[in-house]
């Protein structure tokens, strides 16, 4: 896919560039980013160079991940990274993707990540045809969960041992957002479990009197 740029009131979401290498390297020195995300740990400058110069352009080209550098409109400072990941089912009947993000320490608690998330979500629903957008993070990542909840994701539970991080399997929190949660249409109609169960429930047998009027009719005729 050709890379796109999205804008919000305060932010520009654009593809990463080699000129972002220093800012990415600095941000990813944060222990919290290394603790809660899949970035390498320790994070070296070569990792940042590879991410901005090779990985991100390749991900867009090959429809692997749509990575955005989130920067401020006012001065172009890097706020963080946001992307649509796990795109294998985007162009299948499932029409699914997953939202992932990290935020530079000094840019947290300003509402930037939520603002960027809403822009990517709208783009995913209205331009890409996403019909189920997932969020997943290691259990305990309260900051990421707060952003997801603020964007309207509904928590669906805890997946045991879903994430492999630093050589161990970790439980993961999982949530999902549907176009209908935002009042948007979906190409494939959604039949919630309650409605599906009601539609498939067996109908109660109706009592029909026998011709003689002596009670319930037999379920099948007898043969003499």
From TrEMBL:
Region of interest called Disordered, as start-end residue ranges on this chain: 189-224
Domain N-acetyltransferase: 11-179
Recorded coiled-coil stretches: none
Superkingdom of origin organism: Bacteria
InterPro entries: Acyl_CoA_acyltransferase, GNAT_dom, Ribosomal_N-acetyltransferase
GO cellular component: cytoplasm
Pfam families named in the record: Acetyltransf_3
GO molecular function annotations of the record: protein N-terminal-serine acetyltransferase activity; protein-N-terminal-alanine acetyltransferase activity
Keyword vocabulary terms for this entry: Transferase
Protein name: GCN5-related N-acetyltransferase
Organism: Streptomyces iranensis
């Amino acid at each position: 896919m050709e890379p796109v740029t999205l804008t919000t009131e305060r932010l520009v979401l654009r593809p990463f560039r080699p000129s972002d290498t220093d800012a990415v390297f600095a941000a990813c020195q944060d222990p919290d980013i290394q603790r809660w995300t899949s970035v390498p740990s320790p994070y070296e400058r070569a990792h940042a160079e590879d991410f901005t110069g090779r990985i991100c352009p390749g991900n867009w080209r090959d429809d692997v991940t749509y990575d955005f550098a989130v920067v401020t409109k006012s001065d172009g400072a890097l706020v963080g990274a946001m992307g649509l990941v796990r795109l294998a089912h985007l162009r299948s009947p499932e029409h699914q993707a997953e939202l992932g993000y990290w935020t530079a320490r000094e840019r947290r608690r300003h509402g930037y990540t939520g603002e960027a998330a809403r822009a990517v979500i709208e783009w995913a629903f209205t331009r890409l045809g996403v019909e189920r957008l997932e969020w997943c993070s290691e259990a305990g990542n309260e900051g990421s969960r707060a952003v997801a909840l603020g964007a309207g994701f509904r928590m669906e539970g805890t997946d045991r041992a879903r994430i492999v991080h630093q050589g161990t399997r970790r439980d993961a929190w999982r949530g999902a957002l549907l176009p209908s949660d935002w009042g948007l249409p979906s190409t494939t109609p959604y039949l919630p479990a309650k409605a599906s169960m009601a539609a498939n429930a067996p109908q109660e047998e109706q009592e029909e009197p026998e011709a003689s009027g002596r009670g319930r009719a037999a379920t099948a005729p007898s043969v003499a």
